[in-house]
TrEMBL record:
UniProt subunit comment: Homotetramer.
Species this protein is from: Hydrogenobacter hydrogenophilus
Family under the similarity heading: Belongs to the KdsC family.
Stated name of the protein: 3-deoxy-D-manno-octulosonate 8-phosphate phosphatase (KDO 8-P phosphatase)
Cofactors named for this entry: Mg(2+)
Amino acid sequence: MDLTEKAKRVKMLLMDVDGVLTDGKLYYTQEGEEIKVFNVRDGLGIKLIQKAGIKTGVISGRNSKPLINRLRELGVEEIYLGHNEKLPAFEEILKKNHLSCEEIAFIGDDYVDIPILRRVGFPIVVCDAPKVVKETALYITKAKGGEGAVREAIEYLLELRGELKEMLKYYFE
């Protein structure tokens, strides 16, 4: 099956957070409060793919209030935080949404993401991931995690599906 056919099967985009939606660095205030930095371009990308009818979700080992706030602000449907072992959360998402592995695109960046990347129909990895993680991907972003990699991956998927121009039409009228 070619990339276009694989992309057309995608009904949900799942993402890791640290190193994908963020640059992977951990920031703390003097009081110990965690701070997350997100790229607004990734946020618009998430809105574009949702507009195309593709559900979105995250599975992350970390859990923080800033992260929850950002995900809710973006309307991310499936939020699984504090899951160091990601496969059980992945299986739960599949079951809850009546989806097969082939209908999932997943964006990861590190060793803990490999079990999911190996199962999904459209595995995507950010360019600054370790070599062994990149070997699982159908697509490797040019942008680093936290620097627009999610937006790039979304635009790539939508382009393969023949939907990108339609999703961007609003901005060019």
